[in-house]
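Hey, quick one: can you model this chain's 3D structure?
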Amino acid sequence: MNHEGTSGWGGLPSPQTAAPVDLSERWIGLDVARGVALLGILMVNIHYFALPSGIFADTAPPDGSSAFSVVAWYAYRFFCETKFYPLFSLLFGVGLAIQFIRARERGQRWWGAPVRRLLALLCIGVAHALLVWFGDILFVYSIIGFAMVFLVRLRARGLAITACVLAVIVLLIAVLPALGTAFGSSSFPTAKVPIVLDDRPPVTQLLAGLGDRHLMGPWEAGYRELETRALRDGPFAQAMGVRAITWMIAAFFLILTGGAQILMLFCLGAAMLKAGWLKPDAARVQWRMVAVGLAVGLPAALVEILTGPHHTDWLAVFANTALASLGVPFLSMAYLGLALRWANSGSLAWLAHRVSLVGRMGLTNYLMCSLLGAFIFQHWGLARFGSLSTAQLLGVALGIYAVVLVFSSLWLSTFRFGPMERLWRSATYGRWNVSA
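Sure thing. Here's the predicted structure for all 436 residues.
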């Protein structure tokens, strides 16, 4: 395995002490990119806070939507859905690479801290999924991140080659649903004998329906209704039970079908950092990221939306799956380049600074968005589950982000780190009083 030396890793500032990255060593561009990624993720996740998880299979706006909501639905699908979690994945890979570089420059052993860091993230993710929201990504990142503990040791070229190999695997995975469609199966099978709902608790009916195959998955109407009852009406035990079942299904399929793509993006993020593409003075390469990302990503996003409704056409299924996995992430790369250039341009510097504060508290704010969304839509809060239009949901998302902007500014005016960042770093380094 090839290794990098201890200097010249993308131009990172040199640390002076054996501690985590100091605030003075941070690149504001990466924090701005994280803050932008959190907004984009929230614009997607708000739909899954407010509606049954099966909406991921919907390829058209909800029936009865107003013209404004139809436009909002297509806008969020085109610009946000499947575009911002790849950006978050790229940045996760960047973060792991920075940690490895710092450890090597200090002459420290690499293995202990990242393993503890990922184990802590895994525990946070499980708690998030069970107690707040099924769509947690932290658990999946922690599982796949263990592979990066080894891969992050590669040079930029080795990481890029690994990403290309993973891209081939992603393409092969995209062939599977197309083959299934060609031989008569469906991407979203329905039960031959649909479930008949009654007054029993939702978890009881859900487990029975999945067990006797009267329910095949979250995309079916019966599953959606049981999920709605549990999350909108409670009690907490029923909501958590339905959440746990949905989370296990979602996490299993995400790791199985999307694990290679996520690892590919981790590798690309680490490679970009080591190649120096993310440096504040790398304007030329960052504008190329924007140009190539838009040139490939925008057409890919359009074709993905157009092929979505054609579940019975194997070629359309293949194009949809392949473009979602390999084409659309180019748009994420464009978003990254734009965020980096914005951070270093001086344009709207006051806003870039506040967005960077959101990014500095990325873990806290990711969880805070989920908590606020759960409060608005679930039974223990305002119980608005299933009651808002697409346009209204996007408005709620902007409102939540405004709260996060204000909270981040206020918190970091007093404290050096977000509360969850403090907890995560303490678990990583084995002490509470972590200096950065």
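One thing worth noting: Confidence is low (pLDDT under 50) at residues 1-11, 13-25.
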